[in-house]
Design brief:
CATH topology of the largest domain: D-amino Acid Aminotransferase, Chain A, domain 1
Mean pLDDT: 91
Number of strands: 23
CATH architecture of the largest domain: 2-Layer Sandwich
Strand order of the largest sheet: 14-13-10-11-12-15-22-20
Number of helices: 16
Shape: globular
Length: 498
C-alpha cells in the first residue's frame, strides 16, 4: 500500500479522499490555491502545497506544477478526485512518466472513453446497445445534414468532446438542422477546442441511469448496481438516488451485464461509471463512460457497504479485487442532494461571498460530504458546489422524508443556496411517485431556469472577481475607506454575498 498520496483537487471531494487515506494509515498531501489557503481540505491533510495563483489554469489544472511538487516531496500516488484533471489523459500519463501512480484507469482508456464517437463504436462492438445515429469521422456540413435527414426528427447534435450541455442542440425539424449543427460546432470549438459533433436519435424525456463499476488489474470486473440521476438543471445532476424507482430486477441484471461488458471491452481498471439513457419502454442505451469517481458515489456506498475510495487505493496499489458479484446486494434506499451556492429563483446563478454560519444536520444514516465551514469564502473561480448531503432508510418514502427533514436543518448563511429548491423538488407529488425524467425541472420548475432582468451576467462575474482579488475587498462596505475607483462605488448598495 502507498505511504504518501497527493490529492489533486479541492473542496468536499478532497476532504473525502484525505479521510479515507488517513483511515488506511496513508499520509496525505493537499494542494491549494491562494484563495483556498484556509480551506478544510488543507487543514486536515498531513502536508500541503501552495500552488499560488487561484485561476484554475495556474493551480488545479497546472499539470507541470502539480507533478513538480509531488516529486519534490516523494509522493507515490496521486488521486485526481473528479473534475479538474480527473479525466485528462495527459495528466495520467505525466504521473506515470514521473514514476507516480495515477489512481484511475490508464491514459489510453481515458483518451478512448473521452472521445464519445470512438467510445460508442467500441461499446457497440460488444453488443451493448447504443442510440441509433451518426458516429463517424466525416465532419463537413453536407455529410452531417445528409446523415441527419436519415436519422429523422427530432434528433440530437452533440459535441464529441462535450459535457455539461455545451455543444448540444435538439433539432425538431429539417429547417433547423443546418443552423443547429453550425451553432453546436462553434460552441464546441470554444468550450473544448474541438468542433467535432455526432448525431443521434433524440429520446424525449429519458431517464439517466448509471452503473458503478470496479475493475482490478487482473481482469476482474464487477458492478455495484445503479444510480438514478435524472433530476438535473442545465444538464447537471442535483439529486441522485438508488435503487432507481423504475429499474426492475430483470432490467437491473441486463444493464449490469452491459456495464461490465463495456468495462471489459476497453480493459478498464479502477472505479468508473457506465451511463445509460432509458426510454419510457425501458429500452436502455449506452451514453458515455466516466473514467473516475462520481460525485454521487456516497449513495452506492450507503446501500452496498463498499467504500469505493478505499478500493480505488487498493486497486491502484496492485491489490486484487476480492468482492464477488454474487455477494453484492443493495440494502434500503439512499438519496443524495448537492448543495450549491446558487440562486435557483434567478436562473441558478452562482452566489459568491463569505459563509457567516454553517450548521449541518446530524442523525442516524445522515452523511455530510463537505469542504466548507463558517468563515469559508466562496470564490468565483471554481464550481459552486459546497457539499453533498446523503441519507439512507429502509425504503424510498422514508428516505425522501428523512432528506426533507435534513435539508430543513441545514443552515448556510452568507450566500444564497439551493437548499429550499431541493426541498420543493422532493416534496413534488410526481417526484414522490417516482415519475421523473431528465426534463423534470423543465416540466415542473421552468420559471426557476429563467435569469431575471438586472445586471448582465458578465458584469456580475467581473464584480465577483474584483471582490476576490482587490486588496481592499474587506473594506468595501466602509464607504469612506473603499477605493474610489472600485466598481462597487458605482452600483449603489447592490452587493453579492456580503
Amino acid at each position: 500500500m502507498f505511504k504518501k498520496v497527493m490529492i489533486a483537487n479541492r473542496g468536499e471531494i478532497a476532504v473525502r479522499i484525505i479521510k479515507a487515506c488517513q483511515e488506511m494509515g496513508i499520509k496525505t498531501v493537499a494542494i491549494y490555491s491562494e484563495v483556498d489557503s484556509n480551506s478544510p481540505h488543507v487543514e486536515i491533510a498531513d502536508e500541503s502545497v501552495n500552488l499560488g495563483d487561484p485561476t484554475p489554469s495556474e493551480s488545479y489544472l497546472n499539470i507541470a506544477k502539480i507533478i513538480e511538487n509531488a516529486r519534490k516531496i516523494n509522493v507515490e500516488a496521486i488521486h485526481p478526485g473528479y473534475g479538474f484533471l480527473a479525466e485528462n489523459p495527459d495528466f495520467a500519463k505525466a504521473c506515470n512518466d514521473s514514476g507516480i501512480k495515477f489512481i484511475g484507469p490508464t491514459p489510453e482508456v481515458i483518451r478512448l472513453m473521452g472521445d464519445k464517437i470512438e467510445a460508442k463504436k467500441t461499446i457497440a462492438s460488444v453488443k451493448v446497445p447504443v442510440i441509433p445515429g451518426y458516429h463517424e469521422e466525416k465532419q463537413d456540413l453536407a455529410t452531417l445534414i445528409k446523415e441527419g435527414k436519415k436519422i429523422g426528427f427530432p434528433l440530437l447534435v452533440k459535441a464529441t468532446a462535450g459535457g455539461g450541455g455545451k455543444g448540444m442542440r435538439v433539432v425538431h425539424a429539417e429547417a433547423e438542422l443546418e443552423q443547429s449543427i453550425e451553432s453546436a460546432k462553434r460552441e464546441a470549438k470554444s468550450a473544448f477546442g474541438n468542433d467535432s459533433v455526432f448525431l443521434e436519435q433524440y429520446i424525449d424525456k429519458p431517464r439517466h441511469i448509471e452503473f458503478q463499476i470496479l475493475a482490478d488489474e487482473y481482469g476482474h470486473v464487477i458492478h455495484l448496481f445503479e444510480r438514478e440521476c435524472s433530476i438535473q438543471r442545465r444538464h447537471q445532476k442535483i439529486i441522485e438516488e438508488t435503487p432507481s424507482p423504475v429499474v426492475t430486477p430483470k432490467l437491473r441484471e441486463a444493464m449490469g451485464k452491459a456495464a461490465v461488458a463495456a468495462a471489459e471491452a476497453v480493459g478498464y481498471t479502477n472505479a468508473g461509471t457506465i451511463e445509460f439513457m432509458v426510454d419510457d419502454k425501458h429500452n436502455f442505451y449506452f451514453m458515455e463512460m466516466n473514467t473516475r469517481l462520481q460525485v454521487e458515489h456516497p449513495i452506492t456506498e450507503a446501500t452496498t457497504g463498499v467504500d469505493l475510495v478505499k478500493w480505488q487505493l487498493r486497486i491502484a496499489s496492485g491489490m486484487e479485487l476480492t468482492i464477488k458479484q454474487k455477494n453484492l446486494f443493495q440494502r434500503g434506499h439512499a438519496l443524495e442532494c448537492r448543495i450549491y451556492a446558487e440562486d435557483p429563483s434567478n436562473g441558478f446563478l452562482p452566489s459568491i461571498g463569505t459563509l457567516e454560519k454553517v450548521e449541518i444536520p446530524i442523525g442516524p444514516n445522515i452523511r455530510n460530504d463537505t469542504g466548507i465551514e463558517t468563515n469559508y469564502h466562496v470564490s468565483p473561480y471554481y464550481d459552486p458546489m459546497l457539499a453533498k448531503l446523503t441519507v439512507n432508510s429502509e425504503n424510498r418514502e422514508e428516505s425522501i422524508n428523512k432528506m426533507i427533514w435534513a435539508l430543513s436543518h441545514y443552515i448556510v448563511l452568507g450566500v444564497t443556496t439551493n437548499i429550499s429548491f431541493l426541498k420543493k423538488v422532493l416534496e413534488h407529488p410526481e417526484f414522490k411517485k417516482g415519475n421523473i425524467t431528465t426534463q423534470f425541472i423543465n416540466d415542473y420548475f421552468r420559471d426557476w431556469l429563467i435569469t431575471k432582468e438586472g445586471l448582465p451576467l458578465d458584469a456580475i462575474i467581473a464584480l465577483a472577481v474584483y471582490d476576490s482579488l482587490h486588496p481592499q475587498r474587506q473594506e468595501i462596505v466602509r464607504y469612506k475607506e473603499a477605493d474610489p475607483h472600485s466598481p462597487w462605488q458605482h452600483v449603489g448598495r447592490w452587493r453579492m454575498g456580503l
